[in-house]
Design brief:
There is one protein chain. This protein is α+β, with helices and mostly antiparallel strands. The chain contains ten helices and twelve strands. The protein has three domains: 113 residues, Beta-Lactamase, CATH 3.30.450; 72 residues; 161 residues, 2-Layer Sandwich (Heat Shock Protein 90). The protein has a five-stranded antiparallel β-sheet with strand order 2-1-5-4-3. The protein has a five-stranded mixed β-sheet with strand order 7-9-10-12-11. The longest helix has 46 residues. The two termini are 25 Å apart.
Amino acid sequence: MNRHTARIRCDDLVDGVATALIAVDADLRVDRMNAAAEMMFAVSAGFACGAPLLQALPALGVLEGPIQAALRGREAFMARDVRLARNNGGRNTFVADVSLTPLRAGALVLEFSTRDRPHRISREDAQWQQQEVNHEMIRGLAHEIKNPLGGLRGAAQLLERELPAEDLREFTQVIIREADRLQDLVDRLLGPSRPAPMRPTNIHGVLEHVRALLEAQAPEGVEILRDYDPSLPEVPADPEQLIQAVLNVGVNALEALAEADGGRVTLRTRAVRQFTIGGRRHRLVLRIEVCDSGPGVPAEMLERIFFPMVSTRADGSGLGLAIAQTLIRNHGGLIECESRPGDTVFALYLPLSREPE
């Protein structure tokens, strides 16, 4: 075994652990960080490595004193229940245990272990189980809609034959086209007779399609922004289902901004490592975020936001998010929502490999 092979295996080992590790040199510049640290602080190693620690990770300013003391005194430091924030404007703070360990040549290793990791995994399992329940509810609803749709279409065809004027048939054609569109939607809700063909898909091509559709529907004063990670690989997916899922979430964001005096919807992509979906841990997962600056989802609604027929608006159907969840579930993925006034984030997670780790 040569040294290069040994180093690759060491890198894989470091990147495979759930504990976040950051190494800094004597000048407090980031020398290296593992995948768990990238995920924990929402920052890439490519951005952070070589930069001053507190410039790359401003949230660690609360530890500046202990870090300086550990470097000067060459003594380890430990602290529990330290509240930190990710590099996303302070959203999604978390509590971690911190360990600072001096190394030779003036280097220092910072180790972070989140206190809420077991809770997060439990929450993800509960959400996955709820997706299963939602899927069965939607299938039942779709069956109830299917038969009346067939009758509606048949009646429109009979009426068309009896109409005396050709121009009046335009209206029956509208009925027939809309019935066909709803029939297609019902078929999607019921699920295909066989799994949808998954093929390598450029997620940014999907999102650009969605962005164009959202811009056409956006109220005046609403911006549709994008924040893509161009290094992401293709994801195995059905592009049509993904377009529909992200569009449903995006339209929901536009509706939240409809009564506001302007606002923004942001489409964001990132990679997440070592993520659990449905009790399975995946080495690499794609995260699509649909963020809006609207009033937010009421706290009492967050647990029910994906239920069929549940909506925050009086005139809402309550189907858009439920359908989105079903479509993402078809891809072995998961949708989460976190919300506060001025900052609502729907996160769609998709495995970047069809096989879990």
